[in-house]
Write a structure and sequence with these properties.
alpha/beta; Glycerol-3-phosphate (1)-acyltransferase; seven-stranded mixed beta sheet
């Protein structure tokens, strides 16, 4: 039994270091997108309609959580999470994560061990059904091309954090290419400071190999999500404080990913 487990873990480790190629990788990629579309199309309308009629918007969240988990499972993905012991069940947080794949969204949303909202790109609003349903589960679209609207969205998210809703943010602002970690934008850090809550740095591993940006291919495998020790934001007031905070969080994520430096490749 021990030998079989060791062989299985070895195969998983190897699959998580090789980029998918060929027709199989492309078919698996399109299968994953098809599954996502079917889950949204089949489960979204009834869940949203029932919640709207009952005036209980929170009823959509369990469906969204189930849908995210089911999509990962049907896409052949397993998720391993470490670091939950760092979190206080009574504390609200801003989770700041790296972002290399479509897989990251469901991983962060479903597996941090608590209900969270997300800041998402404005393009998500254009997705039929999903775009409308986002507002039911505290997923807020941010338009980074319009500074005023972006600030309004961050302020709205900060207000929800004050009410006890934790938020997840991909601070790079876009998906990075496989093996990359981009510089972090400031909005999420100001949000955490304004709300007076700690930041949890999050390192999501392997998703760039399993379904990376620009590859057009995918493969089954294991996603690893590491929740690092929270970083306090109380008492931070100056721009210099924010710069130091960004550098500290970026460095902790980079080190966990094995990155050699700011905005460059990771080993």
């Amino acid at each position: 039994m021990v030998e079989k487990n060791l062989i299985r873990e070895t195969h998983e480790a190897q699959s998580n270091t090789r980029q998918p190629t060929g027709i199989r990788g492309r078919l698996f990629y399109w299968w994953s997108l098809f599954v996502a579309a079917m889950l949204v199309l089949i489960c979204g309308p009834p869940a949203i309609t029932i919640a709207w009629l009952a005036r209980r918007r929170e009823w959509v969240y369990p469906w969204a959580d189930w849908g995210g988990r089911m999509w990962l499972r049907l896409s052949g993905m397993k998720v391993r999470v470490s670091g939950r012991e760092h979190l206080d069940p009574q504390q609200t947080y801003v989770f700041i994560s790296n972002h290399r794949s479509y897989l990251d969204t469901a991983t962060l949303f479903c597996f941090v061990g608590r209900r969270i909202g997300l800041l998402a790109k404005k393009e998500m609003l254009k997705v039929p059904i999903m775009g409308y349903g986002m507002t039911y589960v505290n997923v807020m679209a941010i338009d980074r091309s319009n500074r005023e609207r972006a600030i309004e969205t961050v302020q709205a998210a900060t207000a929800r954090i004050h009410s006890g809703v934790s938020f997840g943010v991909y601070a790079e602002g876009t998906r990075a290419r496989p093996g990359e970690l981009l510089p972090f934008k400031k909005g999420a850090f100001y949000m955490a400071i304004e709300a007076g809550v700690p930041i949890v740095p999050v390192a999501i591993k392997n998703t760039d190999v399993l379904m990376g940006k620009g590859t057009g291919a995918a493969q089954p495998g294991t996603i690893e999500m590491v929740l690092l020790e929270p970083v306090q934001t109380t008492g931070l007031t100056t721009d210099e404080d924010v710069e130091h905070l960004i550098e500290r969080v970026h460095t902790s994520v980079a080190e966990e990913l094995g990155c050699r430096g700011k905005g460059v490749g990771c080993s």
